[in-house]
Write a structure and sequence with these properties.
The protein is α/β, with parallel strands linked by helices and 203 residues long. The chain has seven helices and seven strands; from the N terminus they run βαβααβββαβααβα. The strands form two sheets. It has a five-stranded parallel beta sheet, sandwiched between helices. α1 crosses α7 and α5 crosses α6. The longest helix is centred in the C-terminal third of the chain and has 20 residues. The chain is globular, with a radius of gyration of 17 Å.
Length: 203
């Protein structure tokens, strides 16, 4: 199984890049996993404590479980992927079965910060984007999907997202085999990645 890691800052366009890659390839040939499913369960915390969770720090991710699931898929085993709610900051009781495929894409802001996970990727891609563009996308997403108002979203960005990006995510760019500026708008880079996966699938 060809394993591709796609990292990048919050709001950089990783999901768009993944969708465009998958849409250019044969149906069901690529399996997708998201780092966001592996946030630690914080449902036991009070609302005040949940509001202070730093989702952009590597300690927020259960990397051991993520690595185990990637390894299981590489060994042709079905995994039960957790489901996470940003509203309650808790894992749901339900899980999503993920079946092995010919290629696997794992996407997330912090996947290159953990060595055991990083070393499992055959191809490492970092999606880069202007900080102002990322900020606009982050605020829009936080308001529409995560129950924050504008002021809360902006405060969260200043306290956590910006600082953690500079400390952990931006430096992880140096592990990438390919850096994709302009996110999902970079059709040339997306075509190159898609062509590499397609070549592997043909073999």
């Amino acid at each position: 199984m060809l394993t591709i890691g796609i990292a990048g800052g919050s709001g950089s366009g990783k999901t768009t890049v993944v969708k465009k890659i998958v849409n250019s390839l044969p149906t069901d040939s690529v399996v997708i996993m998201s780092q966001d499913s592996y946030y630690k369960d914080n449902g036991y915390l009070s609302p005040e404590e949940r509001a202070r969770i730093n989702f952009d720090h590597p300690d927020s991710i259960e990397f051991d479980l993520l690595a185990q699931h990637v390894n299981d898929l590489k060994n042709n085993k079905v995994v039960q992927c957790p489901m996470y709610s940003y509203v309650t900051c808790a894992r749901l009781k339900e899980t999503t079965p993920i079946y092995p495929g010919k290629a696997l894409i794992v996407e997330g802001i912090l996947i290159f910060t953990d060595k055991k996970v990083r070393d499992m990727f055959d191809i490492k891609v970092f999606v880069d984007a202007d900080s102002d563009d990322r900020l606009m996308r982050i605020i829009r997403r936080d308001v529409l999907e995560r129950g924050r108002n504008y002021e809360q979203a902006l405060q969260h960005y200043e306290l956590y997202v910006k600082t953690m990006h500079q400390q952990f995510i931006e430096p992880s760019k140096h592990y990438a085999d390919l850096i994709v500026p302009q996110g999902g708008e970079n059709s040339v880079a997306i075509e190159l990645i898609s062509a590499r996966i397609a070549e592997y699938l043909r073999k």
